Amino acid sequence: MDNRPIGFLDSGVGGLTVVKELLRQLPNEEVIYIGDSKRAPYGSRNKDEILAFTWEMVNFLLSKNVKMIVMACNTATAVALEDVKEKLDIPVLGVIQAGASAVVQKTRSKQVAVIATEATVKSSAYKDIIHRKSPSVELTSLACPKFVPLVEANMMAMPEAKAVVKESLAPLKGKVDSLILGCTHYPLLKPLIQEEMGPEVQLIDSGAETVRDISVLSNYFLISGSEREAIQHRFYTTGDPATFKAIAGQWLNIDDIKVEEVDLSQSQPKTKTLIVATRNQGKAREFEALFSDRGYSIKTLNDYPELPEIEETADSFEGNARLKAETIAEITGELVVGDDSGLCVDVLGGLPGVWSHRFAGPDPTDEQNMSKLLHELASTALIPERRTAHFHTTLVASMPGKESLVIDADWPGRIATAPKGEDGFGYDPIFLVGNGDLTAAELPFEEKNEQSHRGQALRKLMVELPSWLDK
């Protein structure tokens, strides 16, 4: 179970149609919603603007420690989904895939249409997915640029709305049996759209279909919310809070909904310094790969030549990590992460362990340490089951005046009989990963980051760090 909120983003109020369905299907989930009404509609903007605005909302949601992000905006999904998914380590969902899949399943005549913003239509996102799933389905795409301004102005019940819907949908009447509402604003006009298209036409709400995917991913990643007494949903807008509140309260049937106005340009996370208490550039690269997209500037002890050397005099991984992190945090006043990592070989009673870096003497090379370990294990060369081992990492995050955060992780494997591979550092060339035949030094950098003890610990740190910093 994971009671952190799910983050929703949209160019305005349209994404509330997805939230409404989520509250119905998944009542144990808490919602944080950001709607960029001030800069709506997104559909007529260029790709660079849409991508930049979407990232501003993503970063805003990340600052709220969300466990998943739902792009409840077809335009943002079409332009930015893949870029955001590639750079985040939490699940990120769009609304196009679900809507496209639903229309393929529900159409009878294979004559379907999607109405969407200009940017979504130009992206061909719906067309590509539908034709990949069912090449025989004929899709007509129609941009309806006047719909979003109607919804954002809360004019859904006014005569002008009916006239705009009638005029916009005229090219589709009598030609399709299913119509995708390819913008999450459009379900707020659903009664008018259904009236104009006729009762025989199925309206596919892409946002509502997406909630099923949210449920599946939550179960898969074991991050579903648990039943609890109080759930506090939070709504933010860059536009007029009163207009947003009127639409949200009516659509979600929440009387006391609270809406806060935000300025995304000022709420963007400023670059924060994170000092990694090491001079090892290999370790620094691993931190950089995972934390740079979170607004952190990664520094190492090489950037602070005036800092004293911290002797690793403790007899445990946590003790050594604390010594480094807490001492340097006290001197610099910055957020510092210290780690102590080591290789623990079962038949040696956990050695080299905390002495991994100096196993062969006071200041050995990696080659000398590996050579000594292989010598110690010489009698087990023909007995692989006696060469089991694991890498261990303890991370300690420290800031002045705060109780330190401690994270542990292990990476199981075996010791090879000879070094293999050109990448990695330390004992990587002789550490066979899991039950396989590749050493850690033979893995691609990204794959190693995904599996390694330090990669596991860093991902745990990313999850726990925001709430720890807020304490």
UniProtKB/TrEMBL annotation:
Keyword Isomerase: yes
Any GO molecular function: ITP diphosphatase activity
Binding site for substrate: 10-11, 42-43, 74-75, 184-185, 278-283, 341, 425-428, 448, 453-454
CDD domains noted in UniProt: HAM1
Active-site residues per Swiss-Prot or TrEMBL entry: C73 (proton donor/acceptor), C183 (proton donor/acceptor), D340 (proton acceptor)
Assembly behavior: Homodimer.
UniProt entry keywords in alphabetical sequence: Cell shape, Cell wall biogenesis/degradation, Hydrolase, Isomerase, Magnesium, Metal-binding, Nucleotide metabolism, Nucleotide-binding, Peptidoglycan synthesis
GO biological process, one term: peptidoglycan biosynthetic process
Function: Pyrophosphatase that catalyzes the hydrolysis of nucleoside triphosphates to their monophosphate derivatives, with a high preference for the non-canonical purine nucleotides XTP (xanthosine triphosphate), dITP (deoxyinosine triphosphate) and ITP. Seems to function as a house-cleaning enzyme that removes non-canonical purine nucleotides from the nucleotide pool, thus preventing their incorporation into DNA/RNA and avoiding chromosomal lesions. Provides the (R)-glutamate required for cell wall biosynthesis.
Residues holding Mg(2+): E311, D340
Cofactor, free-text remark: Binds 1 Mg(2+) ion per subunit.
Biological pathway: Cell wall biogenesis; peptidoglycan biosynthesis
Family: Belongs to the HAM1 NTPase family. Belongs to the aspartate/glutamate racemases family.
Known cofactor(s): Mg(2+)
Protein known as: Multifunctional fusion protein
Catalysed conversion reaction: XTP + H2O = XMP + diphosphate + H(+); ITP + H2O = IMP + diphosphate + H(+); dITP + H2O = dIMP + diphosphate + H(+); L-glutamate = D-glutamate
EC number annotated for this UniProt entry: 3.6.1.66, 5.1.1.3
InterPro entries according to UniProt: Asp/Glu/hydantoin_racemase, Asp/Glu_race, Asp/Glu_racemase_AS_1, Asp/Glu_racemase_AS_2, dITP/XTP_pyrophosphatase, Glu_race, ITPase-like_fam, RdgB/HAM1
